[in-house]
Structure formats: structure tokens, C-alpha cells
Amino acid sequence: MPEFSPPRVLEENLSRMVLLLKRLDIADLGQCDFLERPAPEALMQALEDLDYLAALDDDGNLSEVGIVMSEFPLDPQISKSLLAACEFQCVSEMLTLAAMLTVAPCCFLPPPHSAPVLSSRRALQRPEGDHMTLIHIYNHYKEHGDAWCCDAALCPRSLHQADVLRAELLDIMQRIELPVSAPMFPDEECILNVTRALLSGGFLKVARDVDGQGNYVMLTHKHVAHLHPSSVYDGRTPLPTWVLYHDFSISQDNCISVATEILPEMLLEFAPQYYLSNLPLSESRDLLMELRDQLQDQDTFTAQGDEDSLKEAEEKDACCLQ
């Protein structure tokens, strides 16, 4: 093994770091004196991701959205979702989710677990997906404190860290005068709005089950992975076809973790430019193009029907006047 571990800047997604450098007005990343210079491809990918998130303007500088995103100590995709939550009236839930996603890898203690622990874990799961399960776990923690964590093999220190981070994020929201909606979870409309907000920022992390057997191809780079065994969907039949995921690790059994089922129509609604123009050629892109054509045909048919109904109404009005 090497004497020292490689620097994290050489291995991790650089979007957050590039966003910070842009905020510090270090625009020429090629001239920046890194202690360990990351690959140019990694820097370019980070700039592309920020551009897709509307964090950059046409000149490559921070946009107004990017300036607000840089206020949060979060991954830019989560920051964008938090801003989208203001539109969808689910800010309280997204604050919780942003904090929980940050500590999620350390929140669950590793197996083996006893039967009572597994039963407690299953009781915490939400059928809507792993993201909603994290919100449910946090709410349960706030209600019952540290005492119950051992029952479900959860780390109380990680949950406390999430609570502290959520309070910090709330302070930032209030400082920059963004609206904070009241908690509505687990209202059905609230869950749908949380999914919409998540997809507004995390649309680059979408996977599709290509064979109905749990082989998920990640749309951005065509790698095939599986759902993590801790997912609420593990063992479910049928498995969700399209999922939004938070993380991927090839070293941990080639799994995508923290996944929530989505509809492909949502991709066309919240990220049409990427999925219809920038997504690499693939079967998934073809499916989305077909879906777009079907939706356009339906809209045309509906519009034609509305126009005919309007003409009939006008003719009836004319007859009445005569």
C-alpha cells in the first residue's frame, strides 16, 4: 500500500470547491496554485455541473443563483435543491434532508444486526423512498432523543451532528432572507414537492433499471450499479424503474445509495435542456425523446379539443343572440 493516502482533491467531485473559488473571485482555475493539482478533466466537469445548475452566467462567472448557493456549506446540487424548496413550499423538510444527507454514511451502524434491530429499522422506513426515510428518522430522533438509537443501530452522535447542521442552515436561510415554510411531512403533497425540489438540484444523479432485475445504469456516464442493501426498495417487487440517488460507491459492492423513485416525465419538466440536448446518446435518451413526443402530441390534441369547444361555445352564444 502507498505510504500516504492520495489527497481528497484528486478523488472527489470538485463542484463545491470550484463554487467556493468562484465566490472568492479566483476565476482562472488554470493559474491557481493547488498543493496537489487535480486533473483538468475534473475541473472541467465541475464547471459543467455548475453550469447545468445555473450557478454560472454566460461569461463563466457566478450568477445570482450561484452566489446564493455559495452561502451554504453543502454540495452545490443540494444547495440548488434547497433553493428550489422555497418555490415548492417544503423548505423545512429540505433543511432536514440536506443535513441528513451530509451525515448519512455515518448515521447507520454497520451489521450484523439482531432481529429486533432489523425490525426497528424496517419500522422507520418510508415506502416513498430513502430520502423520505431520512426525514422520518430525523423527526423520530427529535421526538425521542438518543435513547432509542441503539434499538435501530443508529449513531446518536451523527444524528446530533445533523441537528446542529440543520440549525446552521436555517440561520443562513434567515440571514439571506429566504422564506422558510412550515413543516408538512408526511403530507402526500409535501412528499411530492420534496421530490420535485430534490430533482431540481440532483437531476445529474438519475439511474434507470434496464432489465427489471435491479441493474441500474447511471444516465450521466452509463455505468451499471445496484441499489444498496439498506435501501427501502431492497427486495421489493417490482423495483422502481427510474430513481434519483444521492451517492455512488464502486468500492462498496458497486452500489447507489439513498434512492427515491421518480417519473421520467419529471426529468423533462425540471431538466429538459440536459436530458434532451446534453445527455449522451443512449437508450435512456431515446426513451425520453419518445416520451417528449407523446406529451407534445397529447398537448396538441388537448389544445385542439379546447379550441373546438371554444368554437362550439361561440356558435351557441351567437345562436342565442340571434
Q: TL;DR?
A:
With 322 residues, the protein is of the alpha+beta class.
Q: What do these coordinates show?
A:
With 322 residues, the chain is an alpha+beta fold. It is built from twelve helices and five strands. The protein has a five-stranded mixed beta barrel with strand order 1-2-3-5-4. The longest helix has 39 residues. The radius of gyration is 23 Å and the shape is globular. The N and C termini lie far apart (93 Å). The mean pLDDT is 87.
Class by alpha and beta content: alpha+beta
Task: Give me the number of helical elements.
Answer: 12
Radius of gyration: 23 Å
Please count the beta strands (DSSP E, at least 2 residues each): 5
Task: Report the portion of residues in β strands.
Answer: 5-15%
The average pLDDT score comes to: 87
Task: Report the end-to-end length measured between terminal Cα atoms.
Answer: 93 Å
Gross morphology: globular
Question: Considering DSSP H and I runs of 4 or more, what fraction of the residues is helical?
Answer: 40-55%
Name the strands of the widest sheet in spatial order.
Answer: 1-2-3-5-4
